[in-house]
Amino acid sequence: MKKLYSPDSSRVVVGSLLPNLKKMALPLMVALLSAGSALSQDFADHLVISEVSGGGGNPDAPYNSDYIELYNPTSADISINDWSVQYSPADGTSWSATPLTGTVKSKGYFLIKLYTGNGLADLPHFDLQGGTSIASLRGKVVLVNTTTPVEGANPEGAHIIDKVGWGQTGTAATGFEGMPAPTSNTTSVLERKAFATSTAESMGPNGEDVNQGNGYDSNNNNQDFVITGTPSPQYSGSPTESPTVASAGEELAGAGLPKSFVLSAVFPNPVQAEGTIKFGLPKASAVQFMLYSAAGAKVQEKKLGTFAAGYHEVKAFSVTENKLAPGAYILRLTSNSGTVSERVVITR
């Protein structure tokens, strides 16, 4: 299957999938957004948790240390000074923080070595060491842009850069994006996919996606991660990786006009001052913009104007002019060709 990669986009949603969002509560809208990822290509525009292993300390584990791997899918290096990775048991409400320092190169990796016990081998390389012990079967990890421990079973907020919960059986994970990822085991690892179509096999040794990065992010852990039987921890000295395919915009442009109403980018995301959107129309249409809070309240609505068929870039909103509070929002566009939506985070 030919894959579309959008380096400046975190979501491309087909409008016809969401024809009646006006009548739906926000939680259902979020669920539909995640469900649509099988027909779209969603790539993170921020640092992500790319691999988690809790096998350290088990005699059958391939390595004797737990670890968390980070991946930078963006086009710029990212400083993680005064950031942290934090772990909590599957149903826990308190979190153990490991402070971070350093820089993750564009398309590069960063490896955090954690609890060390029994196992077949030492980790050959790592960038930073901590002592937190991670459960192999089920648990949850957050990447935070502070070193202050988060609180609660499923923490939210602009300071949460990424989050993954795994374990759907037994005491299932209570912190996650969308749905928890599958239950792991002592010999396997939780690995973020390269594409929506990636599988455990394609992400494994000699798989077609193994060197394509780990940037797929539909905001649904169950869709974004696979359990792979061959851990392959990568660190800052590992080769950089990025999808070697064309951008979604290039693919669509090469095929002529968009075949459906698409939202190809919201940037920057998170937004601190002004939010700009890129979208494509299969035919001329008036376009309306709406912004919903995480609680489902409509906080802004306006007509963007009438646009010709093709691709357009428009400043959609101003954080200061509209007095928008920091937090997570759902941005929605409607046209004669349907509805497209995207999650956006606002910071100050």
TrEMBL record:
Ranges of biased composition (kind: Low complexity): 211-224
Where along the chain is composition biased (Polar residues)? 229-245
Q: Which UniProt keywords apply?
A: Signal
Q: Where is the signal peptide?
A: 1-40
Q: Any keyword Signal?
A: yes
Q: Does the keyword Signal apply?
A: yes
Which residue intervals define the domain LTD in the entry? Answer: 34-168
Region entry Disordered, spans = 198-247
NCBIfam families linked: Por_Secre_tail
The name under which this protein is listed is: Lamin tail domain-containing protein
Q: Which species?
A: Rufibacter roseus
